């Protein structure tokens, strides 16, 4: 049995753990990264800190263990500006910029450090119709049974209530299972780039 609830600051370690354990296109990436926190610094921590009203977790009732999460922001452009001002600077002190290392020679940790120093910006072509974005991750033991859909519904309802026009997300090009999940929820493919696919969903036409 699982409980769906708003995320709390005390869930931070669990969010980082889940982020790492699903960090290889949904598979465990623990063995791939030297620093177990670096993925969470990019894909989980900033949402809990700067968009807590749009962060929800799936908790196993008996053990109390957090088994999944969905994290979102209603205004991607404003969120990116907030991170540039308040989130990335201290992390840039911890992780050197790998700009001088050819991308093909970088370790996975260095590639993520590159995102800390040079975070990608969502294109205006996407933001004009889909200003919000989200991340969702569930551990294998929590997958199935409609739990992913329940998490997504919780966040999408919160974004709708906030008056958000639409939401987008990115997924690995090889993660066909996740792509099917998003399409089943009504998301439509917006664009493709090497290694990734961007999907969008209109919330308030």
Q: Got a strand count?
A: 7
Spatial strand arrangement across the major sheet:
1-2-3-4-5-7-6
- Tally the helices: what do you get? 9
Q: Write down the secondary-structure element order.
A: EHHHEEHHHHEHEHEE
Which structural class is indicated by helix and strand composition? alpha+beta
Q: Any idea of the CATH topology?
A: Aminopeptidase
The CATH architecture can be named as 3-Layer(aba) Sandwich
- CATH superfamily (homologous) name: Gcn5-related N-acetyltransferase (GNAT)
Q: Give the overall pLDDT as a whole number.
A: 96
How far apart lie the N and C ends? 35 Å
Low-confidence stretches: none
- Overall geometric form: globular
Largest sheet: 7 strands, mixed
Organism: Deinococcus sedimenti
InterPro entries: Acyl_CoA_acyltransferase, Glycosyl_Hydrolase_84, GNAT_dom
Domain N-acetyltransferase: 2-204
Pfam families: Acetyltransf_1
SSE inventory with pairings:
Elements: E1 2-6, H1 12-21, H2 38-43, H3 45-50, E2 55-60, E3 66-73, H4 76-86, H5 88-94, H6 108-117, H7 124-127, E4 132-138, H8 147-161, E5 166-172, H9 176-184, E6 188-193, E7 196-202
Parallel strand pairs: 4-5
Antiparallel strand pairs: 1-2, 2-3, 3-4, 5-7, 6-7
InterPro entries: Acyl_CoA_acyltransferase, Glycosyl_Hydrolase_84, GNAT_dom
Domain N-acetyltransferase: 2-204
Organism: Deinococcus sedimenti
């Amino acid at each position: 049995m699982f409980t769906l609830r708003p995320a709390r600051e005390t869930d931070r370690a669990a969010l980082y753990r889940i982020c790492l354990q699903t960090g290889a296109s949904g598979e465990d990436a623990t063995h791939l990264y030297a620093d177990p926190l670096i993925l969470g610094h990019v894909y989980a921590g900033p949402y809990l800190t700067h968009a807590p009203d749009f962060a929800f977790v799936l908790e196993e009732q008996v053990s109390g263990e957090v088994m999944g999460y969905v994290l979102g922001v209603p205004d991607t452009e404003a969120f990116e500006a907030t991170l540039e001002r308040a989130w990335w600077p201290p992390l840039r002190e911890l992780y050197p910029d790998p700009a001088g290392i050819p991308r093909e020679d970088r370790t996975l940790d260095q590639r993520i450090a590159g995102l800390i120093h040079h975070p990608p910006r969502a294109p205006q072509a996407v933001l004009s119709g889909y200003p919000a974005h989200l991340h969702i991750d569930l551990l294998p033991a929590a997958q199935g049974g409609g739990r992913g859909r329940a998490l997504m519904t919780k966040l999408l309802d919160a974004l709708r209530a906030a008056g958000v026009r639409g939401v987008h997300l990115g997924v690995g090009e090889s993660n066909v299972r996740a792509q099917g999940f998003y399409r089943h929820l009504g998301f439509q493919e917006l664009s493709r780039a090497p290694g990734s696919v961007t999907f969008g969903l209109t919330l308030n036409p």
